[in-house]
Amino acid sequence: MPQPHLTLAQVEATARHAHAGQTDKAGRPYAEHLQAVAEGVRARGGSDEQIAAAWLHDAVEDDALSPRWLADAALPQQVKDIVLAVTKRPGEDLDAYTARILAVPGALLVKEADLAHNSDPGRLAALDEPTRTRLAAKYARVRRLLGLTSG
Description:
By secondary structure, this protein is mainly alpha-helical.
């Protein structure tokens, strides 16, 4: 008999635990970013699966959780597919990365919420000028490749 899926609260707790002690580029607790992305997905009308994926969107990329953990986790396949779609692989170019996001149902909304938080002027203002400029250009390019309008 299949095991029940993790609840959103369990997914959030797992993500917070996995990223415990991690900080973003501005030195803020990384869980703040995860929460902002999950809230951004919810505000954009995302499903529970997309919200769960938002909590986990950086877990594999940041080695907070292993690909094996994700494969074995009691999560809907759509959550796993979205997490893997938004996980940038080492050496992967942006064209391949964004094409994968566009090909996986539900992934674009998660990435849109991620980009919105990453591009927040208040968040970028906490970074040094060279980092801020580099990241702003990168996020703008990813938005263009994904067909997202500015803002």
